[in-house]
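User: Here's a chain of 298 residues. Predict its fold as tokens.
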Amino acid sequence: MSLRAELVRLGLRVVVKRMSGPRSTVEGLRRRLALLGLLVPRPPRGTRVKRLHLDSVKAVSIATRQSLGDRHVLYLHGGGHVAGKPALYRDFTWRIAAAARARVIILDHRLAPEHPYPASLDDAVNAYRALIADGADPQHMAVMGESSGGGLMLAMLLKLRDEGTPLPAAAVALSPWTDLALTGHSMKLNARADPMIRSEEAPRLASQYLAGVDPRTPYASPLYGDPAGLPPTLIQVGSDEVLLDDSVRMAERMRAAGCEIELEIWPRMPHAWQVWARVMPEAREALARIGAFVQSRT
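Assistant: Prediction complete.
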């Protein structure tokens, strides 16, 4: 593990984990992320960034010099289902576009508690369909998401499959939150080791998103769905994460259902470490693996 990764872990523990707690609010989280967004570097010169609407769902398109015109990656951001904006990912999405040689579309989907389940799921499904209607070929498309966005992405695939919509050629989940019932042993076992996420905050976030819906509903918690027929999937997760079991158990269910699944457990990596590619060599290595996976399948 690199020294830079150790420093990121320390920074997350001091700045992020200590700032969350019983007194934190959704509004406070959004304000902190908005301030953080002002510090996120803009993509390099030559990157093509465009705002668009996909069936009324706001989104941002990012393409680099390496991006192929017929290859697309639909990205669903994290934030516990209550926060997050495309601006926070300015220094990440262009890197995905370059690594996968694709055009990346990141959604600005609706958030709880103002818009609880299934608002964000409907946004994701409608945006995917709009991309196809606009000419995107599912065989040259991948879908991707991190944290709550990773769970949302897998739920979207379940719904698209159930409704008979052609599925993308590949999927990538980064530390996905797949179990809103919070039954994974790592929620407790890794509570102290995880440098970023407080496991005691998870029930409140889940409640705000579900608004009374059964947490074992497959379209909310894809761990409880039947994954048969889902596309080849790459899952990356850190060994110390409270969400480790959400990834491991999802991979096990997919493998048992006959899906092509690659699970990578990275030692001591913090939650969604891939977004720190500017400073962490492990993040750049993870992105290279993601890019190779997407290119090989699309």
